[in-house]
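Weekly sync notes, structure subgroup
Attendees: PM, AL, DS (notes)

Item 1: joint prediction request from the bench team. They want all two components modeled as one assembly rather than separately. Inputs as received:
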Amino acid sequence: MKKILVLLLLAVFGIYLADVLFSLEFGKQFFTDGVKDFYLTKGPLDLKVSNTITAIIVNFRGFDTLGEVTVLFLATTAMGGILYKKRHKVGARSVLFPSSQIVMAGSKILFPAIILLGIYVFVHGHLTPGGGFQGGTIIATGFLLMLLAYQDYTVSHKVLTIVESLAGITFVVIGLMGLIKGSTFLENFMPVGTLNNLFSGGLIPIIYIVVGFKVGAELTGLIYTALHEKD
Amino acid sequence: MVGSPILFVAVPLLAAFLIPLFGFIWKELVRIVPGIVLLYLLILSVSLYIQVLQDGTIVEQIGGWAPPWGINLVFSPFTGLLTTLMLFLAFIIWLYSYRFKNVDFEPSKKYFILLLMLVTGSIGIVLTGDIFNQFVFIEIMSISGYALTAFYTGRDSAEASFKYLIMGSLSSMFLLLAIILIYSQLGTLNMADIASKAHLMKPEFRVLALVFFIVGMGIEAEIFPLNGWAPDAYSQAPGPIGAAFSGIVVKAGIYSIIRVTFTLFDVEGTMQFLVLMGMITLVVAEMAAIKQDKIKRMLAYSSIGQMGLVLVAFGIGTEEGVFAALFLMVNHALVKPLLFLSASYLVFNSTEKSIRELNGLGKYLPLTSFLFALGAIAIVGMPPLSGFWAKWSMLTAAANSNMILIIGLVLLVSVVEIVYYFRVVNRIYFFKKEEDVEPKKPTINAMVSMIVLGILIVTIGFYPDLITSYLHEASESLLDKGKYIQDVLSAGQSIIQ
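Output from the run, pasted for the record:
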């Protein structure tokens, strides 16, 4: 009886929700003076950034990105803190299986290529699709491949912590420099260059490189912690 | 120029990223730095608050873009009051937990980073003027919350944390849906801009967005029936974190609901809805509290009940009602942490943490027991402590709006509160101590932090006028929606031209 009631309630709610959402008519424009036109014109014109999404994420709403970077940092910290007691000593790990010769040899060739691709993606974040988060994730997959292929492959936790911290500090310091040099936090204080050049967009490439390092280090740390968890 | 509101977010973030590096240099720095940061921010917050009361709201732009396009922080008499309150509590909690996990370096490092971020997230929620930015801060706050709940890495704390995680993820999803709905209709994310354009939204979208918001934030603000995570999280988290949840996190949740209902949308009947939900929360939570035999669960349910009371007071909708709600919030933010902090020393060595184990501790831990009793008297609203004035202003506000039912209910619930709090106080002072209980003396820093809270409660009780003028300023600033919109949007226009 109780279940039927719950189902009925959910059905009523669902019908209402569907009714409202279907009347949303995706693709149709509801508003005239939203903020999007401002972004679309200011992005290429003032900031000289051809990838408008990057301009929005890193410049117009850069504060959100700082927050998202912090969220990832916290997730890593949390995982490290919770799994702390369950961690094996250095070298020992929970996933123990020998990889085949093909995987071991192949990953050695692929590893530099993956890292290079990751770096390419975050360095060109303001020109092509992608950016710091994507590039960092690609780098972390490279380390994941190495960790899976070689049982004795280790990453220094200390180095990861230092990279992660320095990247975070750089982001905040860049923001504070904006406050000192300009008048507001995270304000662009560097020359913007010309559209479609590698050196363009002012602070955007720098912030994305920093984010790339940070995300790469953090995700690698997460994978490493999870691999070394006791059951 | 003393500083700008952005420092409330930037400095703790910088500190959080620096703490792991400090750990390599000198381990004690990991404990000291958060305290210095919190003290600095507290001083900054007080001086900014004084400046705001004289010169009016500060609107801080970020990234050099004016409000509808960029993100902004708003330091008004209302948000400033909450920021100062949160920072004060954060400093007290830091002081209390200074020697926390002294033997283990790695967990204590994480603990201080997460505590700092929990506070930063809550302050960000209060200060920001942008709904998506608020969402980001909610994420920061709740992820630190999940981690701190699971801090003791036992089976129960993992379960509590998992429960909180599931509820919190649901909350994020609802908030994101609300934000998407609003953006699809108005094309803006700035709160002031939304508030000035909200009438352009179709009514069904407006109602749906509001419902999603209230459900999403209701989870953080512990409104019934969305508060299933709270008692578990409060009782499994370390003692100071329980205090931080009740004093800081919940306040941020309430703030968000209030901002959305008072400023963003004025949908007909929202106030009645707040009163109704508040009353249900109040009654259910107090009924549950009286049945608990674990001290921290009892305090958690009492905390939920108090939040219901705050919602009822906000729902009255008049200036008096908002004033009473703020008074209740301040009172709860000072008293509940005191109760949590003293209770966690009273049950320090026990595994069950049940009320039975508090028997007769009055003789062994006289000062801690006294502070607990003081908190209990303040929270039920007995004169001459701060709780009395808070409840009194709430009852007058209700009486002036002819809401007789609320008065009756609040008085009835107060009786229930008296029963379960005084049952505990009675056990502490007039029962014989259990054989197997070993009392643990609080450390000096913990004692100091509890005594500061105790002194504040007594002072406000005898001189309520010390804070009422600030509360009046804050409630006026909350209710004056036109001024909020004008403050935020005009600051932008002058820069553009």
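Discussion: Chain A has one domain: 44-85+97-227.
Action: AL to compare against the crosslinking data before next sync.
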